[in-house]
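As a warm-up, study this chain.
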Amino acid sequence: MATSPDSAPVLSKRGGARIGRSFWLALNVSYPFARLHVYPDRVELQTIVGAIILPRAVVTAVRRERGIFSTGVRFQHEALRVPRFVLFWTRSSREILETLARFGFPVAEHS
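Now compare it with the structure written out below.
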C-alpha cells in the first residue's frame, strides 16, 4: 500500500525523541521538539536536528518503552543509514501502537 510523498499522514503526534547508537549513546530531544507522522507505508520522525524515515519494510519491531518519567514508542529496524536506536517520547503510545498495528507494522504484543 504505497502512498505518494504529498499524502497526509494517518496520525501525527508531537513529543520528544531519543536517537542514537543505544539508549545511553543517544541524543535526547525533549517535548515539543519532535513530531511523529504515521503513514500506511512508513513512519517519519522529525526533530530540530533532522528527520528519520522508516519504511514499513525495514521496521522489525515496534514496542512501548518505559523511561523513568516518560513512556515512548521504540522502533527497531534494519535501515542502514539510520541510527540503531529510535525512540519517540509520547503520552499517546497506545494510540500510536494501535494505528501502526492496523497498517501492518510489527507491533510487539506486550507493548
